Amino acid sequence: MLVLALKMEVPPADQSLDRLFSSGIAIERSREQSILENEVTELFDDLAGPVLHYLLSFSLSLQDAEEVTQEVFLSLFLHLRDGKPRSNIRAWIFRVAHNLGLRRRESNHRISKVAANPHDCPVELLVDIAPDPEQQITSMQRRQRLLAIVNALPEQDRQCLYLRAEGLKYREIAQVLGISLGGVALALARSLARLVSVDGR
After folding, report:
1. Distance CA 148, CA 62 (A)
2. Which CATH number, 1.10.1040, 1.10.10, 2.60.200, 3.40.50, labels domain 150-201?
3. Residue 190 burial by CB count (10 A; 0-12/13-18/19+): exposed, middle or buried?
4. pTM summary value
5. DSSP type of residue 131
């Protein structure tokens, strides 16, 4: 009976191999993630300044230009993480910056127009429609899901996310936490990527 019990406790060979294979995949993914993080950090350190200056040429405020710069490098992180083409990354970064800069400028113009002439804008932009109970429940469930993800983030990533939500800029977060600008960008990119992937399900 003891031999039989011991045999039952030993997992079948194919299960052990599956576990070993899974852990091998996890280690490989972790290595790839680390390489990708270093690459994005280096690109941020090299190109964030030039991208910011380029965006300022769109007549954006410094705050808008900084926010769009952050969006550009988040987009880069997601682009590379998803294994998309990496040919001429520098040109890709500036193309994305160009498109996002134009979009932000157009959005600012629309907001200014509505603020200046509220009587000329469509009624649906002015009417505040309260969500129905179903929408409220969906919204509450979404908030709980996102909060669970935030709480599961590594401490430094979570701190970066909270400070950013409080309106601090990347360089201010870097000063508060004593890390590099690239480290802040990377922490936020990782956090936002996890939030986007969960929220998109």
Report:
1. 33
2. 1.10.10
3. buried
4. 0.52
5. P
Radius of gyration over every alpha carbon of the chain, rounded to an integer in angstroms: 23
Specify the DSSP class assigned to residue 10.
S
DSSP for 49-70, written as a single string: HHHHHHHHTTT--HHHHHHHHH
- At 102-160, the pLDDT tens digits run 999 998 888 876 666 655 555 544 444 456 677 777 777 777 777 888 888 888 888 88
Euclidean distance between the first and final Cα of the chain, in Å? 49
Encode pLDDT of 164-185 as tens digits. Answer: 887 778 888 888 888 898 888 8
How far is it, in rounded angstroms, from Cα 55 to Cα 77?
Answer: 19
CA 132 from chain centre, in angstroms, equals 30
Instruction: DSSP letter for 159, please.
Output: H
